Amino acid sequence: MNDQAVVAIRFTLFKHSRDSFLAALDDASIRHSSVMKFSGRPQASGFTEIISALSDAMPWNSIAKVIVSWVEARKSRRVMVQVEDGTVVIEANGYNAKDVERLLKACASVTVIDTMPGDAETKALESGADD
Questions:
Q1: What is the rounded distance in angstroms from the CA atom of residue 108 to the CA atom of residue 83?
Q2: What integer pLDDT is reported at residue 125 of this predicted model?
Q3: Residue 86: CATH number of its domain
Q4: Where in the sequence is the domain holding 102, given as residue range(s)?
Q5: Which partner for 35 in 21, 48, 90, 108 could form a disulfide, CB atoms 3.0-4.6 Å apart?
């Protein structure tokens, strides 16, 4: 019998990040599932996606490459990785794929934010404005 554990990474997607980040995961053939949240208490708005696999089958490197390329595509994008102890949040911006992969292996959750929709950023860049 194989004693591998199932590993899950929870991604919380805020602002305008949902469509573009999920499309990037799809383009990389990384399977993900939506999670519905129900609570009697107020919740932060955002969508939750889970990527889960047996530990040896988790596509760590592919996920890291998606994060790095997604962040580098626009100045308005941020990815924060919260490690397992829940106290340290590391912004993935500026890290290479190997570093992000190492962070993911120790993470409890990942927050993905794009503060500006694609069309608005394109217009702002064309007009010379900076976010």
A1: 5
A2: 47
A3: 3.10.20
A4: 6-126
A5: 48
Q: Is residue 1 part of a domain?
A: no
pLDDT by residue (tens digit) across 72-96?
999 999 999 998 776 678 888 889 9
Report, in angstroms and rounded to the nearest whole number, the Rg of the chain calculated over CA atoms. Answer: 16
Using pLDDT thresholds of 50, 70 and 90, give the confidence band for residue 113.
Answer: very high
Residue 48 belongs to some domain of the structure: yes
Residue 131 lies in a domain: no
Amino acid at 119: D
* Residue 104 forms part of a structural domain: yes
Structure token digits, residue 93: 């911006």
- Residue 117, pLDDT > 50, answer yes
Burial grade of 71 (CB within 10 A; 0-12, 13-18, 19 or more): buried
CB within 8 A of 3, min separation 6: which ones?
none
Q: How many domains are there within the chain?
A: 1
User: pLDDT tens across 28-60, in order?
Assistant: 999 999 987 766 665 566 789 999 998 889 999
